[in-house]
Amino acid sequence: MDLGLAGKTAWITGASGGIGRVIAEAFAAEGANLVLQGHGRFEELAAFAGGQSWATRCLCLRADLSRPEEVERCARAGSERFGRLDVCVVAAGRWPREPRLLHEASVERIRATLDDNLLSAVWTARAFLSQLSGSGPRADQHGASLVLLGSTAGRFGERHHTDYALAKAGLRGLVTSLKNEIVLLDPRGRVNLVEPGWTMTRVVRPELSRPGVIQRVTASMALRQLGAASDVARAVLFLASPVCARHVTGEFLSVAGGMEGRTLWSAADIDEARARQMPDS
Q1: What's the DSSP call for residue 255?
Q2: Mean pLDDT, rounded, for 219-242
Q3: Which of 14, 58, 98, 172 lies in the 20 to 30 Å Cα band around 89?
């Protein structure tokens, strides 16, 4: 099926990460122009993109998304190179690996998590909409699309990662508000959220390699399997498509194997609790 993305320009943040890079490859395969943002691993991203067959329709930019002025510079550069930005995929984010109860987490960690996962998305959306206000809607009525990557943590919460869950939950409010703002700039414009669950990437591989972790995290999933970056990329392509998702906006699409929430207690924990509750004989 033709997704209507050929010749469109997609700005993808976090393109140096595992999921972001696969999303970039998926858009490239559809014939889209690419504006790829990276920061900490920018050289790796530039080297990867430079070796692809689609390198001539790709612009790689280094930007610190916690700094609004750098985000705006990135959006302007992409728009100047390709004439306009049609799609924005906010894939940048960071999961703090160290488990911390909220009262034990430092103020610096909490602020950094919000910067990396919520405020960076705000600045990116702001810059994308600013460019859209200048370019206006397309003549072919293929509406602009803003797709944000959240997390099931924003829906179910995540013990020891309250800061991360808070940041990802904030994206839901961003989406439900911006869906009513983007149409003032483009009557066919759409804003949606993809919420991956546990997905095998380089960042989480050390955590998932610990004995028993995969069994624990898949215990609340109907499909009982980990997601792949390509699963997330396909969901993003669907929502970005002005053909397939023409009438889809303000929605939250979970890519989590039918997850219903986190398993709080192991079988051993439950047996121990039951034993404590047994009346004395």
Answers
A1: E
A2: 94
A3: 98
Distance of CA 41 to CAs 14, 37, 44, Å?
10, 10, 5
pTM score, whole prediction: 0.91
**What are the tens digits of pLDDT across the range 103-118?**
999 999 999 999 999 9
Q: How many CA atoms, within 13 angstroms, populate the side-chain half-sphere of residue 37? A: 27
- Residue 9 is encoded by which pair of tokens? 């320009």
- pLDDT, mean over the chain: 93
Q: Distance between CA atoms of 86 and 5, rounded to whole angstroms?
A: 9
Is pLDDT at 156 greater than 70 in this prediction?
yes
Please say if the pLDDT value at position 281 is more than 50: no
Higher-confidence residue of 215 and 99: namely 99
Instruction: Tell me the C-alpha to C-alpha distance, in Å, between residue 104 and each of 107, 149, 154, 160, 276.
Output: 9, 27, 20, 9, 29
Beta strands in 177-232 (DSSP E): 190-196
Scanning the chain, the segments in alpha helix (DSSP H) are: 18-29, 42-50, 68-82, 107-114, 120-135, 153-156, 162-178, 205-208, 213-217, 229-240, 267-277
How far the first Cα of the chain sits from its last, in Å, is: 69
For residue 117, CA distances in Å to 15, 82, 90, 193 come to 15, 27, 10, 13
Query: What is the number of alpha carbons within 13 Å of residue 257 lying toward its C-beta?
Result: 18
